[in-house]
């Protein structure tokens, strides 16, 4: 099979590798389409994880072959499926307390560090073996590109679930990229009044088209003061920071209302400490939390939302490249003005 292997930063190679053989509890998938995540771009530019790597955790697939122990009443060759990509152990404290997305074993597994071989999620290859228990069905009517959007949407649904939006709440979303706009779509479904803070004028226009009620230009105005003006000086009940900038994380906390919630959705780059008014957190009962990756529940919800047309991800699909053009695709995805970029492996 062909695979996009990043041998070192800025150097991809299309390699011929053996087709993996499914273990008894696994399914061999033929990958159709795989999305490029910000983390894939970081791997391309140079990350702390080991090389060589085969990235790709936002992929759609078709069942090719079943392991000997897989229940054929659930899966059959030819079905469209998507894979929950966290290899949770099911035994650690996090797994036993409904936080399998924080599994200790997954964090230390070969997805990130493999000194004696290839690391990565393996979605940027023509075939991949996955646990049958991690698969979710899609109907044939759903496009491969939409299916490949399941994982990012599931991350956002996890974020929404942790913050308990109530109908009529003022919600601020900082950042108008793919993940920010997915927050817009989901927050509107919860009945929120959505304010988007975004530096790029074109992205502000798109945020309005996607359902945002108001947009803020944080370059030419003070975003904290603008949020207060738009909310009767109260601040927003919920604030999502989808940017990687520590100073913006500080602003997110400043613009939240009494008893409100701030969710740090994005990782920080660089991960510099921020100053927080702890007295205000205490006296105004403000909650600051974070979310990372999807839970199994939010993944199932994402499948339902895409399958049933509740969330339309198609407007966020920017460009689909042939997998052989992976370097060009990564360079394009790294641009600040693009949305979701994908690699096509098969139909």
From TrEMBL:
Alcohol dehydrogenase-like N-terminal domain location: 23-138
Tagged with keyword Oxidoreductase: yes
Family per similarity comment: Belongs to the zinc-containing alcohol dehydrogenase family.
Alphabetized PANTHER family for the sequence: L-THREONINE 3-DEHYDROGENASE
Essential cofactor(s): Zn(2+)
SUPFAM superfamilies, sorted: GroES-like, NAD(P)-binding Rossmann-fold domains
Highest rank taxon of the organism: Bacteria
Residue span(s) of domain Alcohol dehydrogenase-like C-terminal: 179-307
Residue ranges crossing the lipid bilayer per the database entry: none
Organism, as annotated: Faecalicoccus pleomorphus
Family annotation (InterPro entries): ADH-like_C (IPR013149), ADH-like_N (IPR013154), ADH_Zn_CS (IPR002328), GroES-like_sf (IPR011032), NAD(P)-bd_dom_sf (IPR036291), Zn_alcohol_dh (IPR050129)
Protein name per its UniProtKB record: Alcohol dehydrogenase catalytic domain-containing protein
Keywords, in A-Z order: Metal-binding, Oxidoreductase, Zinc
GO molecular function, one term: oxidoreductase activity
